[in-house]
C-alpha cells in the first residue's frame, strides 16, 4: 500500500509569506487583528481582517453599512458606517460597533478613515491579540 505524501511545508511557507506581506503595511492591503467583540457577530475577537487602504481615489466610495478602519489612541478600530453627514462643508462618517448601544457612535471625517474591511479570516488574529494583551498588563 502506497503512503500519500502530505508535505504541508510549501503551504506553510506561502501562508507565512502572505501574512508578513499583509502585516508590513507597505502595500494597498494590510491585515489587522480584531481585539474586541464590538463588531460581534460579524467580526469576532481573534479574527483577522484584510483592510484595503483608503486613498484619494476610493475615499468617495465610502457608504453606509461598509465596515471601515480608523486609528484611535494608537489602535486600529473597525466599525460599521451608520451614516454620512455633511456639516459646514465637511463630510463626516458616523460609525458604530454592531454590538454597541445605538448611543455609542463615533464621528470621523472621511480623511480619518484609513481602510475598508474587505474580508475576514476567522481565528488568525488570536496570537496577535493575546501577545498585545499580555504586553499591556
Q: Explain this structure to me?
A:
- The protein has 137 residues and is an alpha+beta fold.
- 18% of the residues lie in helices and 36% in strands.
- It has helices at 9-23, 126-135, and strands at 29-33, 48-53, 67-72, 75-87, 90-96, 106-109, 113-121.
- Strands 1-2-7-3-4-5-6 form a seven-stranded antiparallel sheet.
- Strand 3 (67-72) and strand 4 (75-87) form a beta hairpin.
Short synopsis of the structure:
By secondary structure, this protein is of the alpha+beta class. Helices cover 18% and strands 36% of the residues.
Radius of gyration: 18 Å
Mean pLDDT: 88
Strand order of the largest sheet: 1-2-7-3-4-5-6
Which residue ranges are poorly predicted, with pLDDT under 50 across at least 5 consecutive positions? none
Which structural class do you get from the secondary structure elements? Answer: alpha+beta
N-end to C-end Cα span: 54 Å
Care to count the β-strands?
7
Provide a count of the helices: 2
Query: What characterizes the major β-sheet?
Result: 7 strands, antiparallel
> Strand-and-helix sequence, N→C?
HEEEEEEEH
Helix content: 10-25%
Give the overall form. Answer: globular
Strand content: 35-45%
Protein topology:
Elements (H helix, E strand, L loop, with lengths): L8 H15 L5 E5 L14 E6 L13 E6 L2 E13 L2 E7 L9 E4 L3 E9 L4 H10 L2
Antiparallel strand pairs: 1-2, 2-7, 3-4, 3-7, 4-5, 5-6
